[in-house]
Write a structure and sequence with these properties.
The chain is an alpha+beta fold. It is built from six helices and 13 strands. The strands form four sheets. Strands 2-3-5-8-4 form a five-stranded mixed beta sheet, covered by helices on one side. Strands 1-11-12-13 form a four-stranded antiparallel beta sheet.
């Protein structure tokens, strides 16, 4: 069984999920005026979370304001479960995106975006085509079928509910919520040795520039404690089995280790600039 979740899980996952932005902040700390802010201090985006605690999976919706958002993408993994990714390409039309959906369920979870589109349509939000407003929604999913139920995945109804949460002002929680409900880390020695992870958020401000990171961590490796720089206590025991396990499982790992980062900036930029900055 996966190890139980500690009482201070939310704090641990927040640090683990935001390790990239945390390193960035440490590097630019010398810049005068930079400070941490709440994710709710960014009016351009509202975040809605819905999950099934029984099935251990869920959906997170990042809903942008009426102006939408110019987006870019960097696909680092070999098996991304994604929807409408070409909208983020610098060679396609520079149309603002209405929402980004993060979910569990692997490729099955892409059904959640259908519900998000219906919800936005019901509220008159979308790209005006002359005959109808078409909501522009991008999505990516983690593989969480090995944790909780493999037959119950995020669907259209869950996506609709998460979008309604975002429209109502959002519930931007960190931890085992939304798309992070089925997220785990430390799977190199199998799911029986994995640790619970989740959804993390972090935001900063420097002058008029605001930046936020929303990350679902579903990594193959272990968590490092940011206060000590040490691996989780169980890592050394895992190493005893590492070589044998790697040999046995070399062909298994793929979607099980996908993590989903979403970076939100208040600055204006083109699709090409956005794609470059996401790298």
């Amino acid at each position: 069984m996966i190890r139980s979740m500690p009482e201070d899980f939310g704090k641990e996952v927040r640090h683990a999920s935001c390790i990239r932005i945390y390193i960035f902040i440490r590097r630019v700390r010398v810049m005068k005026g930079i400070r941490e802010i709440a994710i709710t201090d960014m009016p351009e985006v509202s975040i809605g979370n819905v999950q099934s605690d029984e099935a251990k999976t869920g959906v997170t919706v990042l809903l942008f304001d009426k102006k939408g958002a110019v987006v870019g993408v960097d696909i680092s993994g070999g098996g991304p479960a994604s929807r409408e990714t070409p909208l983020t390409s610098p060679v396609t039309a520079d149309n603002p995106i209405n929402a980004i959906v993060l979910s569990g369920g692997s490729a099955y979870g892409l059904a959640a975006a259908d519900g998000v589109m219906r919800c936005l349509e019901d509220h008159g939000i979308g790209f005006e085509t002359g005959y109808a407003k078409v909501p522009l929604v991008c999505q990516s999913c983690i593989y969480d079928l090995g944790y909780g139920s493999a037959t119950v995945r995020p669907d259209s109804a869950m996506g609709y509910a998460a979008c309604e949460k975002a429209l109502a002002g959002g519930n931007p929680s960190c931890g085992s919520v939304g798309a992070g409900t089925g997220a785990t880390v430390g799977k190199i020695c199998g799911m029986e040795r994995a640790m619970k992870s989740g959804l993390g958020m972090y935001a900063v401000e420097l002058g008029e520039l605001r930046m936020a990171a929303v990350v679902v961590v579903n990594a193959l490796g272990d968590i490092f404690d940011p206060s000590t720089g040490k691996r989780s206590p169980d890592f050394l025991r895992q190493m005893e089995r590492l070589l044998v396990t790697v040999a046995k499982n070399s062909g298994r790992w793929g979607g099980e280790r996908i993590s989903l980062p979403a970076i939100q900036r208040s600055e204006q930029c083109s699709l090409t600039e956005s794609s470059i900055k996401h790298r």
